[in-house]
Structure formats: structure tokens, C-alpha cells
Design goal:
Layout (H helix, E strand, L loop, with lengths): L10 E4 L4 H9 L4 E4 L3 H9 L25
Parallel strand pairs: 1-2
Length: 72
């Protein structure tokens, strides 16, 4: 992926309640922007490849991985 146009091939999940994230993702003209209000459900959607990515903060672990409910 090397251009903003490449985002048109990707899908993501977020909630309109997170206005900055929602507005940013909406501006990218993605293939799909799925509404989900529960954070753990968003993580599961990425884990099961129902969407390509979600926005989240980096973690302080050396490898920057996030683990929740056995999902990495």
C-alpha cells in the first residue's frame, strides 16, 4: 500500500461515538466502514478477518501487540 487511493480496497470498523476516529475513517473513502459500538466486538471482527483493520493505540510492550480475551 503506497497511496491514499489504496485505502479504497480496505474495510474497517469503528463507532460514530468516537468522532475523531469516525471522521478520519469516513474521509478515507474506504471500501466499507462498519458501525460497531462494542470495542471487544471490533477486535473480534478484525481477528476473524471480517474487516481489514481498526484504529487503536499502540501498547507499551516491546512488540506493540495487544491481547484481549485470547485475541492478539
Amino acid at each position: 500500500m503506497n497511496e491514499i487511493a489504496d485505502f479504497k480496497r480496505l474495510s474497517t470498523v469503528s463507532t460514530p461515538k468516537w468522532r475523531t476516529d469516525w471522521n478520519t475513517l469516513s474521509a478515507l473513502l474506504l471500501k466499507e466502514l462498519v458501525i460497531e459500538h462494542e470495542w471487544i466486538s471490533m477486535v473480534r471482527m478484525v481477528n476473524f478477518a471480517l474487516v481489514d483493520f481498526m484504529l487503536m493505540p499502540f501498547h507499551s510492550s516491546p512488540d506493540k501487540r495487544f491481547t484481549l480475551d485470547k485475541l492478539t
